[in-house]
Backbone:
């Protein structure tokens, strides 16, 4: 994929993220839009929450350059973990995913297990302190 095509896709990811935030009444996190064209987004300790995860999930489906996503300690809970897992079924660029310390319980863990059964790209998943 050419760099210009990749940037077009990522700009679309930012637009989808912002539109979904507006729709859900979620305050957008600047780091998502600011780093949408990078290979890594670190949102550790940001108050993403379950609804913010739904907005982020919409963007992840289009984020073709993103390889490393750090969502540790962001308050995702089960709902947020399920949203991220569902989105990553359509994403084949994420290699490392950190979901540590998010209060993820059985439904979130089940969704992540299903993701890993079908996703051969993710090489590292952190669920420490789940």
Residues:
């Amino acid at each position: 994929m050419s760099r210009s095509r990749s940037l077009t896709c990522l700009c679309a990811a930012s637009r989808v993220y912002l539109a979904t935030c507006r729709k859900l009444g979620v305050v957008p996190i600047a780091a998502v839009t600011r780093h949408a064209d990078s290979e890594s987004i670190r949102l550790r300790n940001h108050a993403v929450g379950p609804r913010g995860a739904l907005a982020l999930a919409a963007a992840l489906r289009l984020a073709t350059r993103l390889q490393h996503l750090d969502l540790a300690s962001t308050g995702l809970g089960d709902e947020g973990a399920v949203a991220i897992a569902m989105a990553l079924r359509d994403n084949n660029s994420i290699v490392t995913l950190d979901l540590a310390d998010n209060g993820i319980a059985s439904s979130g863990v089940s969704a992540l297990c299903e993701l890993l059964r079908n996703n051969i790209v993710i090489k590292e998943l952190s669920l420490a302190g789940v």
About this structure: The beta strands are 40-42, 68-70, 96-98, 124-126. The chain has one domain: 3-126.
